[in-house]
Write a structure and sequence with these properties.
4-stranded antiparallel β-sheet; 17 strands; alpha+beta; 3 domains
């Protein structure tokens, strides 16, 4: 009778363990990257009362007489089937498609594995887990082997490139010069006519000239044409007339030069946020003294394959 009770008790024990596994699954239903577990059972060794024997020429064989001693918990397995995608609207969150783990490292240098992709950035730009462990990057571009270098997101890439040819730069490549259609207002510097106190000259930069100017050099030509046309239009109805013309060129060193070829000096006035001269920080242009704009900066494009060991090679993720 006591053996029957012990055998039954093994069933109760594994049943309790199975319930515990299910309870743990339920408890972690909202845990990020949690994988459910399944309990698997196996029979225990049997108590052999008599052995069996093989058949003979005159008698048949007999099977052994065995009494099972119960059931045991053989294994608790994880279900690594792909979970559903969940959008968090957080740019640093990620998920693993298929099998695999993220490798993370604690402050002591110990490396751990996790499937939790709820990452953030620390003050240095290193990607970290919720507990502060560093997320490690790959050892190379085309390998899944982890390195001991944290994934680093640069927080302050210097956006200036020296020695670049501004004449071929696209308008969309500029960081600090949002040129748009608008007006350029200016007047003469001698105080006799066409000043800010009298009647300034207004040069209109049409929208189609801006949209068609793909490069900085082409845009400078459009602005130059608009200013010189405005001077011509002004002279048709004003006396004395304005002499001279304006030349605007993009320089290879990243600046823009505005100069008066002949005639009077001019002052730019009534500058607006969409004004070309305001963006270039140009106020006055004199004969033989061209005005040089501030150096424009460009969007920096970094190729990680060209510098796989450079931690600042990542521009976005």
């Amino acid at each position: 009778m006591s053996q029957a009770l012990f055998t039954s008790m093994t069933g109760l024990n594994v049943a309790q363990q199975a319930i515990n596994v299910v309870a743990n699954n339920v408890a972690n239903i909202n845990t990020t990257a949690f994988k459910t577990a399944d309990a698997r059972f196996a029979t225990m060794f049997s108590n052999t009362l008599t052995s069996g024997n093989a058949p003979t020429a005159t008698a048949g064989g007999t099977n052994p007489k065995q009494i099972g001693l119960g059931v045991k918990l053989e294994a608790i397995t994880r279900n690594f089937n792909q979970g559903s995608f969940l959008s968090t609207d957080i740019g640093s969150d990620s998920m693993i498609s298929g099998r695999g783990y993220y490798t993370v490292m604690d402050a002591s240098g110990n490396v751990f594995l996790t499937r939790d992709g709820a990452f953030t950035l620390d003050a240095n730009g290193d990607m970290i887990t919720a507990t502060g462990n560093k997320v490690l990057g790959a050892a190379g571009i085309a390998t899944e082997e982890a390195s001991l270098v944290p994934v680093h997101i640069p927080q302050a890439i210097t956006p200036k490139v020296s020695g670049a040819d501004l004449t071929t730069k696209l308008m969309g490549d500029l960081n600090n010069a949002k040129f748009t259609a608008g007006t350029v207002v200016f007047g003469l510097n001698d105080g006799t006519h066409a000043t800010a106190d009298d009647e300034p000259i207004v040069a209109t930069i049409p929208e189609d000239a801006v949209s068609s100017a793909k490069t900085v050099s082409a845009f400078c030509t459009a602005v130059q044409t608009a200013i010189n046309n405005a001077i011509t239009d002004y002279n048709t109805s004003h006396t004395p007339q304005v002499t001279g013309s304006v030349t605007i060129t993009a320089q290879d060193d990243g600046t823009i030069k505005i100069e008066m070829a002949t005639g009077e000096s001019i002052n730019f006035t009534n500058l607006s946020t969409s004004n070309f001269t305001s963006m270039c920080n140009i106020d006055q242009v004199k004969i033989s003294e061209p005005a040089i704009s501030k150096k424009l900066s460009y969007v920096v494009e970094v190729d990680p394959e060209a510098s796989p060991t450079n931690r600042t090679s990542l521009s976005s993720y």
